[in-house]
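Chain A, query sequence.
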Amino acid sequence: MQCGASRKIINPELGHKLAGYGSDYPCEGIHDDLSLSCLYLNDGEEESIFIVYDLVGMKKNYVDTIREAISETTLIPISHILLHCTHVHSGPMILKDNLDPNIPEDKQQQDYKDKVIKFSAEAAAEAKSNQEECELLYNYAQVSENMNRRFFLPNREHFFIPLAKQLVGQSTEFVDEELGIIAFRKKGTPNKYKAIISNYTAHPLCVGNTSNLATADYQGQIRKTVEGTFDGVICLSTTGAAGDHHPRKPESGFDEAERMGKTIGTVLIERLYDATKCPDTKLRMAYNDITLKGLNQDDVSTCYGLLGIGPIMLCGLPGELAAILGAQIKYSSPFLKSFSLHLSTDIISYLSARNQFYWGGYEPNSSSVEPGQAEVLVNDILKAAEVLVSESPLNLPEIKPWDGKH
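Chain A, predicted structure.
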């Protein structure tokens, strides 16, 4: 497998409104760099581009504009190009205030968006040009750094834990603590990596509204930790299906973001030592449209993207999927391991599980689609994944026979 990687810094200008907590947070400086990190892959037959952004999210039309620019620059089919935003809330607003189409977009936002389009195409071309032959490895680990932010009583009284922090540690809702690891090791080397993908399920909100400085939050600290150990590597840190998942200490400041990121990054480094090499390096890709029934509004047309890298699938989502549904993708997927990508193809709203609508709370109350429609999306994703695997069966690592002792 051929792998290339590159990075561009995408810091906002002073005064650019930061996204995630309303419009009253103008950028007052840069605490740590925001970036876009680009991965180029070639299995000998197909090519793909995957880019991760330190941004809150992108609407479908803007995602497609970037993908078109990348395709024109690299000649890679647009259906083979997948983007993902970490959903950091300390980066520049690019969605207009409150996503209201009637509010005009200011020049600062438009200039920034134009820069991101340009940098994305340049990064893709650079990653393609520096490709090297690599081996594909994967691993996973459990890291207890996140929480489900939903808490409710039997009478259906609901508490949003970030606004009731005395309840931290009290929620009994599902928590996905899996850290996913995909690594591209330079062929012929024991510990030289071209790129590494991490996947962890938590909003990047350790810093949150505690500062008006731009920051990549804990995701940036994961990258810093990994890249500080493996010389020359580019780490693409991604956010899983975090529609109801927060860090355990949200809005706690820069020190907590550094601690959490270092903790996750250190586990990643440790688990590369016993990562499994994949004989299957084939790229399996899909980018499909879907229409979901709107909640008190017109139907919602959106899309999702799948990037199968050997036996591992990355699933690009159009919204903020509940972690329990992300787990359904993981455990029902025909791929060996599957990891969701929060806010990848679009940003339509929260995508809550059907039962969560009975209990209420911030996420289902913010949904743009009817109860059960998130499950429709998940089922469509799983069917598309089945098609990819049926067209090109996986070549899995062999299972060692059980000797009855271990």
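Residues 2-277 form one domain. The chain has eight helices and 21 strands.
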